[in-house]
Amino acid sequence: MDNLMSEGLSLMVFGMGFVFVFLTLLVFATGFMSKVIAKVVPEAPPQPARPAAPAAAPAPAGGDELIAVMTAAVHQYRKN
């Protein structure tokens, strides 16, 4: 039983160590690629500012009826 526990513990340490090393290498590789891409591809020129969008249109007069129909549909769907 003691041998089985030591094998399990060593396998756990080996697996966690492998994952830690892989993730560390991944962080460094991602940072390196980011720096290379920043040097190779120039930054895009800034886009001109667009005018603000117009205000939202007011709700149609039959909005209450639409809400009632949608509520009835949801209740009918949940009942089935």
UniProtKB/TrEMBL annotation:
InterPro entries: Na_pump_deCOase (IPR005899), OadG (IPR023424). Its main location: membrane. The chain crosses the membrane at residues 12-32. It catalyses: oxaloacetate + 2 Na(+)(in) + H(+) = pyruvate + 2 Na(+)(out) + CO2. Keywords: Cell membrane, Ion transport, Membrane, Sodium, Sodium transport, Translocase, Transmembrane, Transmembrane helix, Transport. Its cofactor is Na(+). GO terms for molecular function: decarboxylation-driven active transmembrane transporter activity; oxaloacetate decarboxylase activity; sodium ion transmembrane transporter activity. Signal peptide: none annotated. Belongs to the OadG family. Heterotrimer of an alpha, a beta and a gamma subunit. NCBIfam families: oadG_fam (TIGR01195). HAMAP family: OadG. This is Probable oxaloacetate decarboxylase gamma chain. The gene is oadG.
